[in-house]
Amino acid sequence: MGSKAVVSSFLMVSLCVAIFVTQGVAHTQTPPTVPGLFPPGSPIDLVKCWSSLFNVEGCVLEIAKSIFSGKFENVEAACCKAFLTLDTNCWPQMFPLNPFFPPLLKDICARIVPNSPARN
């Protein structure tokens, strides 16, 4: 009976050590990045870039739909205003797989929002 208790205690301690060591290693590792898309220490803050679009209700969804469908009629003026205020340095990191989309959306938004800076 005593040896079963010792083995059970040993297994329990081993299990706890394995769990805590795994968590500790996970905290020390840096998250993986895709080379060229989001380099670590990038000067462009993606949260800042996306925040103006997230502040307009439904804007990110409208932009995502237009990316996948190629139709821009559902992009509203408020969303266009938010998109036109984005820094152009954000575009390559926000839309890394489609570099032609941001200038296209900018031109369409310039038509939707008549007095935008993109038209001047």
Layout of helices and strands:
Blueprint (H helix, E strand, L loop, with lengths): L1 H27 L17 H9 L4 H11 L7 H8 L6 H4 L6 H12 L8
Walk me through what this model shows:
With 120 residues, the protein is mainly α. The protein folds into 2 domains: 30 residues; 78 residues, no CATH class. It has 6 helices and no strands. The longest helix has 27 residues. Pfam families: Prolamin_like (PF05617). InterPro entries: Prolamin-like. Keywords: Signal.
Category by helix and strand content:
mainly alpha
Order of helices and strands: HHHHHH
Q: The biggest beta sheet, please? A: none
- Low-pLDDT sequence parts: none
Give the overall form: rod-shaped
Portion of residues in helices?
55-70%
Count of domains? 2
Note the total helix count.
6
Let me know the average pLDDT: 76
Tell me the Rg in angstroms: 25 Å
Distance between the termini: 87 Å
- Bin the strand percentage: under 5%
- SS elements, strand count: 0
List keywords for this structure.
2 domains, 0% strand, mainly alpha, 120 residues
Summarize the model shown.
Helices cover 59% and strands 0% of the residues.
